[in-house]
Automatic annotation (TrEMBL):
<keyword id="KW-0067">ATP-binding</keyword>
<dbReference type="InterPro" id="IPR016187">
    <property type="entry name" value="CTDL_fold"/>
</dbReference>
<dbReference type="InterPro" id="IPR042095">
    <property type="entry name" value="SUMF_sf"/>
</dbReference>
<dbReference type="InterPro" id="IPR008271">
    <property type="entry name" value="Ser/Thr_kinase_AS"/>
</dbReference>
<dbReference type="GO" id="GO:0004674">
    <property type="term" value="F:protein serine/threonine kinase activity"/>
</dbReference>
<dbReference type="InterPro" id="IPR011009">
    <property type="entry name" value="Kinase-like_dom_sf"/>
</dbReference>
<feature type="domain" description="Protein kinase">
    <location>
        <begin position="111"/>
        <end position="379"/>
    </location>
</feature>
<dbReference type="InterPro" id="IPR005532">
    <property type="entry name" value="SUMF_dom"/>
</dbReference>
<keyword id="KW-0808">Transferase</keyword>
<protein>
    <submittedName>
        <fullName>Serine/threonine-protein kinase pkn6</fullName>
        <ecNumber>2.7.11.1</ecNumber>
    </submittedName>
</protein>
<keyword id="KW-0418">Kinase</keyword>
<keyword id="KW-0547">Nucleotide-binding</keyword>
<dbReference type="Pfam" id="PF03781">
    <property type="entry name" value="FGE-sulfatase"/>
</dbReference>
<dbReference type="GO" id="GO:0005524">
    <property type="term" value="F:ATP binding"/>
</dbReference>
<dbReference type="InterPro" id="IPR000719">
    <property type="entry name" value="Prot_kinase_dom"/>
</dbReference>
<dbReference type="Pfam" id="PF00069">
    <property type="entry name" value="Pkinase"/>
</dbReference>
Length: 1087
């Protein structure tokens, strides 16, 4: 209710204007003159008509101004059309809304009402047919019982807000108006859509979340955030973001709707009506406390955070029996981390949600775009920007909402200390008084001196104690870090030890603010930071290379952007052109590294363009097609889109044979990117990227400007030593918090953070416990598995889940949960891998096979004329049942397990690499052994590897040698094309110039891919050239500590077919790493 004084009664002129507008709502000038003539003829109002005419002119000007601000798509819309004749005091027969049953009039304006959809706060929503366009629309109509000033103003505001928006994640406004006093808004109709509220209800009623639930949630909320960001960009704040106002189309696209409570920036509606907008459970603290003047787009970020929380925890963060209770909780209560309510909830999503729900708008995401970006960082398995709140922040936040309690705590503590000191001093004084009145003055002086000395001694003792504790904290930190590698594997029995470690670590981390305070106090005594020291500190700052790199990227992209806008011209740097013809291949490769689209080093594009141009001018085109490809991308890299297209067209005109397909791919890519970069959208995107790069540059610049060296007066050695100790302690604890207390972190060489291990161990305990989903899967399949493997008394394998049997080999396959998500089978029954997929282990039954090779008898088993001495003699081996990976370990899988990707060739730096499903390489034996062991896996022994490779055959390859191109990726014509000038290439072309995705070629008889070719694979055994002459028959194995060398098997894309043989067993040192050497995981059967 408003507290304003009642409005004064209308003047005679205003009353006359009202009478005219009641009869003529559109207020046309010709209608007024006719009406005025009638008034004069009747002898009334003759003294006021000129004044009424002036008032009408003002009314029309205001009406037109309002219509322009709304930007009505269907012509000028007069707000007065929404106001019933006679005003709101006496509504009268305004025109009735259709009933829910559909009876009565079925037309409103040019719409035919076809189906009632829903009743909302302001009116009804109908599915209607637009007779003008023939399209089906969603038509919102005002309820008669809600037809008052506020409702119509809200209705008008929804129209005004909707007219500003055009985004795929916002329901589109098609038009609005009124018909016989009935106001309507026509919106895009989304057939088959459900609300997010319905979705949440459905999920909550289920017994198990879908495997990809959290990724779908992150994607959905990110797209809603995109829609909100678009609305904020045109000055519209939604203010009622909630699941009921988010539609989900059948294809999964979320659409934000219902802008009836939206606030248009610079809209005066709030101050006029005293409006209190929103739905209580989804309001921000600033909405709840009615801070309208400070309300901005960040209120929508909070509300969307509430929606995300509800999706993650399947309950609202702020609940209560009354609106007062809900409001109080929004302002004072921090809801529990959703990952503590739903243990499957990824901690990264919980952290993102927590940042969106910060009480202080300044601590939330700065925009919905930043909110969406962080969600997409999670989806891309990259580090998120949000961080869990620190202990200090949590305390400050608690104190802010509990000011009395925090103040009382501090006062009580101070009072206890004061009382203790006073009592002690009083006892001492009384004792002195009793000694002798004559010596009172002397004793008093002595007591005061002793008290001062005692206080000084106590202060010194306290300082020494704190110093000792800080040194102890360094030792405790070292002890904790020394235990990290012992806390493997992350299995349920490790949970107590993992929790204990985290508790000890958190106690250390909680003292970081105290250590920083001590260091700050110490540094106040430091000498002034000289200009020379500033320059020296900057030059050795660890972030300086990053700053240099980002400045080069910014300058490069700004130059290309300005070239596209006609603000810069291209001038090539001079080159020693006499070098180009003699070594064109090498120079072309150098140019390509400077301009390729996936480059990660910027600033040398003009140099690359100069090299490619020089080769083009001096070398015949037909002999160097790849140079034209390089020239095309070089011109694109500097913003010369026309030159890029001309160069690639020239390359197409001369390309013949196998290289043509490669050039066609580059041509198609260039046509797409040049069209985009020259478009308005592309230029806007480039401008946005430049702004983001500049912002990142500024942030790094501030970091590089930090002081690193500290000098103190005098000899200063004690202060300098303490500064170094405190800095080491603070840096170590900050690193500890960012790494091992971060549930999403992993790093070389320790692998997963301790917090991540604990989360996985707890999930494993739950999912493999009674009624857990994986326990149920094993119960379902165990009998069938045992039946398929006669004599194998297999027990459920912790950390693995059955995937069923391969349709071709009949062998059972299992997902290794620590390495990714279980892949699903396609319509043909075969597993379909993507970059999120886990390692798949194949259960190989026990049995015997013939191992090794011989070159003496073509008719005998395992004949291979290329065999070497250490492949002989041929011998029979018995193996127990074991598991071996269906594929080589993919880069995405390795990075999830290890926390880093050592590969020299990745999709980010090499155009030959097709994706993150390509195999990891550059892995040493030591790293492979350690990482696999941490996750319950191991390297295969030579015997297990060879049996898996042979798959029941006794030939050098488990497939006909004329079918190499289908089964094994070796050094063939595709390699020769990718690396021009290479010799020794096989005659066929398998289409893979480098290593290929791990599932890209046909499997052998056991369903295993790439046992030969692609990348070499480490084996567990130490090298022993004579092992076959003395090896044991049952499960043979040469311990690795007997040799500095380790066996590797299978050949690679870099090697010809000689190396791709089942029996070939070369070796390298355990610390060797090669661009074509990777890993295939194995696992023994656990009892």
């Amino acid at each position: 209710m408003s507290n304003h004084d009642p409005d004064p009664p209308p003047s005679p002129q205003e009353q006359l204007l009202h009478e005219f507008l009641e009869a003529h709502p559109h207020g046309r000038a010709d209608a007024f003159e006719d009406w005025a003539a009638g008034q004069q003829a009747a002898g009334s109002a003759t003294g006021h008509l000129d004044e009424v005419r002036a008032l009408l002119a003002e009314w029309r000007a205001a009406s037109e101004l309002i219509a322009k601000s709304i930007a009505e798509p269907e012509g000028v819309w007069n707000l007065f059309d929404l106001i019933p004749a006679g005003g709101f005091a006496d509504q009268g027969p305004l025109g009735r809304l259709p009933s829910d049953s559909g009876s009565g009039d079925r037309r409103v304006s040019h719409f035919t009402l076809e189906r009632f959809i829903a009743r909302g706060g302001m009116g009804q929503v109908w599915e209607a047919l637009d007779s003008r366009s023939g399209e089906t629309v969603a038509l919102k109509l005002v309820l008669p019982e809600r037809l008052d000033d506020r409702t119509l103003a809200l209705f008008a505001r929804e129209a005004r807000a909707g007219a500003k928006l055009d985004h795929p994640n916002v329901v589109k406004l098609l038009g609005y108006g009124s018909d016989g006093g009935m106001s309507w808004i026509a919106q895009e109709f989304v057939p088959g859509a459900k609300t997010l509220k319905d979705f949440i209800a459905g999920v909550s009623s289920g017994t198990q979340l879908p495997s990809d639930y959290h990724r779908r949630v992150a994607d959905l909320v990110a797209r809603v955030a995109d829609g909100l960001h678009a609305s904020h960009g045109v000055g519209v704040i939604h203010r009622d973001v909630k699941p009921a106002n988010i539609l989900i189309a059948p294809d999964g696209t979320p659409r934000l709707t219902d802008f009836g409570l939206a606030r248009v920036v610079d809209d005066s509606f709030d101050s006029v009506t005293g409006d209190f907008a929103g739905t209580w459970a989804y309001m921000s603290p600033e909405q709840v406390t009615a801070k309208r003047m400070g309300l901005d787009h960040r209120t929508d970020i909070f509300s969307l955070g509430v929606v995300l929380y509800e999706l993650l925890a399947l309950r609202r963060p702020f609940e209560g029996d009354t609106t007062h209770q809900i409001a109080q909780r929004i302002v004072t209560y921090d809801p529990p981390d959703p990952s503590t309510i739903r243990s499957q909830c990824p901690s990264a999503l919980a952290t993102i949600c927590g940042k969106a729900l910060e009480k202080d708008p300044d601590r939330r995401y700065g925009s919905c775009a930043a909110f969406a970006d962080d969600l997409r960082e999670y989806l891309s398995d990259r580090p998120i920007a949000a961080r869990p709140p620190s202990v200090v922040h949590r305390l400050r936040r608690w104190a802010a909402v509990h000011p009395v309690a925090s103040s009382v705590t501090a006062v009580v503590t101070l009072a206890l200390i004061s009382v203790t000191v006073l009592l002690t001093e009083n006892l001492r004084t009384n004792r002195l008084l009793r000694s002798s009145n004559a010596d009172l003055a002397e004793q008093r002086d002595l007591a005061e001196a002793n008290a001062a000395a005692a206080l000084a001694a106590q202060s010194s003792a306290d300082q020494e104690r704190q110093d000792v504790l800080r040194l102890s904290a360094l030792q405790d930190l070292d002890l904790l870090l020394g235990e990290v590698d012992e806390l493997w594997p992350a299995t349920p029995e490790r949970i107590p030890a993992l929790r204990s470690w985290i508790e000890r670590a958190e106690r250390l981390v909680d003292d970081i603010p105290l250590h920083r305070l001590k260091r700050s106090e110490l540094r106040t005594r430091a000498l002034e930071w000289s200009q020379e020291q500033r320059l020296a500190d900057r030059s050795m700052h660890p972030a300086l290379p990053q700053l240099v790199a980002i400045e080069a990227e910014l300058a490069s992209k700004r130059f290309a952007y300005d070239v596209r806008r006609g603000l810069e011209s291209i001038e090539l740097p001079p080159l020693e052109e006499q070098l180009l013809p003699q070594d064109a291949d090498a120079w072309s490769e150098i140019a390509w590294t400077r301009v390729r689209p996936s480059r990660d080093v910027y600033g040398r594009e003009l140099e690359g363009l100069a090299i490619a141009s020089g080769i083009r001018e001096q070398v015949p085109v037909g002999s160097h097609i790849q140079t034209l490809r390089t020239l095309a991308w070089a011109r694109f890299s500097v913003g010369d889109d026309d030159g890029a297209l001309a160069a690639i067209e020239e390359a197409l005109a001369h390309a013949e044979g196998p290289i043509r397909a490669d050039i066609e791919n580059h041509a198609a890519g260039l046509q797409v990117v040049t069209a985009f970069m020259r478009s308005e959208e592309g230029l806007r995107s480039a401008a946005t990227e430049l702004e983001e790069l500049a912002s990142r540059r500024d942030a790094i610049e501030a970091t590089v400007g930090e002081r690193l060296t500290w000098e103190f007066p005098g000899d200063g050695r004690g202060s300098a030593w303490w500064n170094d100790q405190l800095s080491a302690l603070i840096d170590g604890l900050e690193q500890l918090e960012a790494s091992h207390l971060n549930a999403d972190a992993a790093e070389w060489p320790h692998g997963w953070s301790v917090a991540r291990r604990l989360a996985f161990a707890e999930r494993t305990a739950r999912d493999f416990g009674p009624a857990g989903p994986y326990s149920e899967a094993w119960s379902r399949d165990l009998a069938a598995i045992r039946a398929a493997y006669s004599g194998l008394e297999l027990e459920p394998q912790l950390g693995l889940v059955p995937l069923g049997a391969d349709p071709d080999s009949g062998l059972w396959e299992f997902a290794h949960l620590a390495s990714g998500l279980p892949p699903e089978r396609g319509a043909d029954g075969r597993l379909q891998l993507d970059e999120e997929s886990s390692i798949v282990l194949v259960l190989v039954p026990e049995g015997s096979f013939t191992m090794g090779a011989q070159q003496d008898d073509p008719a005998a088993s395992c004949f291979d004329p290329r065999s070497l001495a250490d492949e002989r003699p041929v011998h029979s081996v018995e193996l127990s049942a074991f598991m071996i990976a269906k594929h080589e370990t993919a880069q995405s899988q390795w990075e999830r397990l290890a926390g880093w990707n050592p590969s020299s060739r990745t999709p980010a730096n090499n155009d030959l690499i097709e994706g993150w499903l390509n195999p990891v390489e550059q892995v040493t034996w030591n790293d492979a052994y350690r990482v696999l062991l941490q996750h319950g896996l191991e390297l295969p022994t030579e015997a297990r590897w060879e049996r898996a490779c042979r798959a029941g055959t006794t030939t050098p390859t488990p497939f006909p040698e004329d079918e190499f191109a289908a089964y094994a990726n070796v050094r063939d014509q595709s390699y020769g094309r990718a690396f021009q000038g290479s010799d020794g290439c096989e005659a066929w072309d398998d289409g893979h110039g480098g290593h290929a995705p791990v599932d890209s070629m046909r499997p052998n008889g056991l369903g295993l891919h790439h046992m030969l070719g692609n990348v070499w694979e480490w084996c567990l055994d130490g090298y022993d050239g004579n092992a076959y002459r003395r090896v044991r028959r049952k499960d043979p194995f040469t311990p690795p500590d007997q040799s500095p060398y380790r066996h590797m098997r299978g050949g690679s894309y870099y090697n010809p077919t000689f190396d791709a043989r089942a029996s070939f067993r070369p070796a390298l040192t355990a610390e060797s790493s090669e661009h074509d050497l990777g890993v295939r995981a194995a696992r023994s059967i656990h009892p």
